[in-house]
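Minutes, methods subgroup
Present: GH (chair), OT, SY

1. OT presented the first of two proteins processed in the latest run. Sequence and structure tokens recorded below as shown on screen.
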Amino acid sequence: MSSTGASNMLLANVIRAAALSIFFQVIFCSFILADVTLPRLISDGMVLQRETALKIWGWASRDEYIRVDFAGKTYDAVADADGKWHVLLPPLDAGGPYTMTITGGNEVTVNDVLVGDVWFCSGQSNMVHMLNIHDVTYATDIAEANYQEIRQFLVPTAADLLAPQNDFPSGSWTRAMGEDVRSFSAVAYFFAKKIYDTHRVPIGIINASVGGTPIEAWISEERLRVFPALNGTIQQNKDTAYVQSVNRAAAQAARRKSFVPSAGGWRNINVPGYWEDQGIRDLDGVVWYRKEVDIPAAMAGKPAGVFLGRIVDEDVLTINGIEVGRTTYMYPQRRYKVPGGVLKAGKNSFLVKVTNHGGKGGFVPDKPYCIFAGQDTVDLKGTWQYKVGEVFDYHHATVPSINIQNQPAALFNGMVAPAIDYALKGVLWYQGESNVGQHADYVLRLPALINDWRTKWGNQMLPFLYVQLPGFMEYNYLPSESSWAALRESQRKALAVPQTAMAVAIDLGEWNDIHPDRKKEVGERLALLARKLVYGEDLVASGPMYQSYQKDGHKVSLSFDHVGSGLVARDGGALSEFAIAGPDRKFVWAKAEIRGDRVVVWSEKVGDPMYVRYAWADNPVNPNLYNKEGLPASPFEIQIN
């Protein structure tokens, strides 16, 4: 064979080998192509924000061609080196339902898509609280819920100490219809319902809230770098081995001993009430309560309901030897269902196992305690019997544990970051209880959170509406210092941030419940603020807000914004809850009179007033300054220069 022939054969073999290689690479790649996937938010029933450019995104194979078909138009994208892709949809008017189809190596269809207004609702337990928890107060609202254009995406609790996450671990859109409405945040639902009833556009609620969490957990690592202590904590928490070792040490240090007291008889005790107030000193442990309850024949055999108020901390209820309910922490109201066939006519044995881990244990006063069926109700308050079943002897930890969901940036990473590409109308925020006692920090952190989220969403004027904390804990009839009032003042000061508004809730609290029942008023006050600030309605949306002062001798004249049709004392009496102090900061109750759109405050005991407060207490007794539209004035403190 000539050298030319050999060369040609060699070249042919090389070409053949290359062709086979390409063929097998194509075949191989066809097996490893990743399916097109979407974030949890982009799913059936979603609500997209109207009148703004919309980002639709997801994941696929590197360099994969993606086509999105929506509302009669087609949009193209190519997945980047990390497999992420996105398209931008032009602003759309409110409407729907639409179908969205995303095509790559596979095809994904998103059904029943609406275009309207989307609100990101966040905070701690008072934003978490679902309608189901308040189903007695709002039984009619639940029964009448039939709003297929109001939808909620409930973000699962997901904290991460390391980095912002790309997606939520689970979640789907739910319509405010029938029993499904029970899972809606009560505050967010009543807000959405009012906006929907007024403007008739679909409303989407993204509910990202976790009980008992501080504000710093919701702020990004980038924004928290200006707070050295918090930034140091973030960096330390990225050492997983360190976090695990701290929690192991804390668990070991906190391990409790317990013992069962010697046998003894049952003693009488009153329900409701705490056992520490009834002859038991500083007991952490298990206490058994029992009572023989007379049930009328009309209730016998019927399904029934039991209200056991609130119990600190845990409880298990059995009736006639059958367990009918249990709760593992102090905050929920105890509302248990008794199956048919449990109750009998005459004597019925009620037994409650109460476990308390710290502080006063027992049954919280001023709550409902009864059993009912049909038209009959039997009161459960009064004398019960008790016996101590177990006593805990705690060895208090010298090393604190690391609660991941409470760590700086942890909830931002897991519950906010996955949503920042999803266009919003605005934010609702109800939080602060976990930062009471840290008002000097909160006055900086709330504006930091607002600006952080606006930066992340790329909208420096994103409306931010929030709730000032309501009254809570015991009434105090003398002027006093208050960490709750100081936190409210920090919240009030955040109004200096543009495009914000605050719903005052000082009159909506309960002295014995950090989760007051009156969620509808909170949601509707937020809706009033949104209707004015965001939707441009001409209405009075807020109660009076302190604006400025004039000092004239021993009197101080206060002016207010948001006076509406005029200032009033809600109960028709004299203004109350004003206090005044001189340079010594010894506050005394002040006289206060409405004079036009101003309030004049003074006390004969203070010749040179330097400080004025209004409703400055954990739970002020009678904060009665309102405008004629029925909205309460915000608590405040001022220093006179």
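2. SY then presented the second protein from the same run.
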Amino acid sequence: MTSNTAISTSEDDTFNSVMENISNGLRSMFEIPGQGFIHLEPELPFLFLHRIKPNDAGTKRLAKSGASYLIIGDVSAFEYGKLITQVSEAMTSKHNAFLIVDIYSGSYGSTDFKIHAPESRLPASMEALKHELHKIRVSDEAPYLGVTVDNEVVAVEGVSVLPCSSDEVLDCGATLIHIEVPPVYRSSQGVLFPVFFRRFRDHFSRALQKAIFEFIRVQTTSGIPSFSAIGKRNIHEELYKLDKQLTDIESSFSLLMLVAPVNINNIRETFFESGFKEVPDYHYRLLPVDPDRLKRKLFNLRIDEIDDPALAFLYSEKREELDKQLSMLKERGSRNFFYSSIRLFHGVEKDLKKEAENILSILPEEQEPDPSELINAFQFKELVQQEFNFFKKQDSGFQSKVHIKEDLNVMMVSQGEFYLPKNYKLTHKEANALLQHEIGTHVLTYYNGSKQPLSQLKAGLADYDTLQEGLAVMSEFLSGSITPNRLRTLAGRVVAGDALMQGCNFKDMFDLLKNTYGFSKDRAFNIVSRMFQGGGFLKDIIYLKGFVQLRHYLNSGGDLELLLSGKFALHHVNIIQELIERQVLIAPVIKPRYLQMDCYKDQMKETTAGTYLAQMIKK
């Protein structure tokens, strides 16, 4: 869908351009003299109307939350009535029906939505609208707002004065309804309550979408698949700027890199040589950014002005997460870092700890492989390059790099590129698993996210880490490469995270893993040393947590390939699906190798069979 955006030079130019765009299936976006504006999606058979009036904070933004809207300014400066009737005729001809929704606010103190509509002609739409509006209330303690319906549409025209009558709209084949909105979102002085307004707007917008979908389903031939596809289909230029600014802030630092100790090898040697008694202090890289300055930039972003409810939620949520991460940079090495880590990763639930303990009780630790069977970091790099070539065959624009570093204790993907410790050694089976984990998931979703119109899909929406790591572990399983030791490690991280929350120190946690749960000293050290990064870092609990949550999602009929569209959380799935249906986002551009493996179908059946995780791996 392309668009036409301009400032109209004459009434005839505007009329002709809008009509031509409808005929050609093009979006219309025109400023109109007298502070008016039209935004029309020709594939969506509805239009919101709003008449500008003084002291009416918030109401215009309710109308602008729709995918198609007409803001009516000074009626002496432009023939709005003619525009409405011409659009109605053209859109009715295109879709067999057309719905116009007039949105205006009532008087202060009103607590009822007042709908003026031919209910007998729109029974399904009115039922959906009333049902959804009845769910709105000012606070958890307050009663729900009321909803009344008046079948006499003409009776309201003395209140919401439109530049054309209901009969004129009806003669064009369209249907007109008026919605008087109780202005509970602003004070008696007309000052907007910003936090409540966003919640009110989201509920109101969703109510209208469901009502309009019923109209479309019954009355038109549009073929819209669901109510979620009715939302906005284009992104305002200012939102693209905000999106890039938010991503620039996030890209200016790597939390994982900045909390990873640079003296990890010295810590390991000292701890082992002292008989597991001495733990040197962690040393970190210098901060490349000033967290306070970044916070100032972060909260200068006008996220509160985003009128698309779905996108407003995503960006507000992401700002809160970045605020927490920047606080953690300032708190690095202190106890406050650990408390912030709990807020970021939500701690260890009882069911997750029980799952981890079950794995550790069933799966014994496997013996260390013969050193002659191991491959080194440079050999692993060659395998990574093969995965890169596999992606490049699917999309010639794909590119990424491998960085081998001495001062790193874990492999990681940062901004789409792969970082590998120089002294890393692993078996061929572990290599196959980590190829799908790091490259087939983290690099892949970064690249797919980079192909989306919104850069936050490559940087990662709020709380994306849990699903990312769940996908990554699932990819190890679906490729038939996950080992008992690997699953034990993920379970050990959960047990260690729970111990950290109980106040356990480094030496006692190491003893717990080594002597109670049977980990080798090297595996126990790796788990514990990662857990104490920064002052106490709970990120490692999300690997098993994400795996468990993803398995439940797949058991419930969830779409695995949808999750490869970018970096987001499971609770974003419905929004991502909605944005794809609205043609704001696209489906994955590249897909992982494991989807083509012979073992994929059998492993997927095992995933959805309901057996315990430990038994799945044991088989």
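Chair's summary of item 2: The chain is about 50% helix and 10% strand.
Next meeting: continue with the remaining queue.
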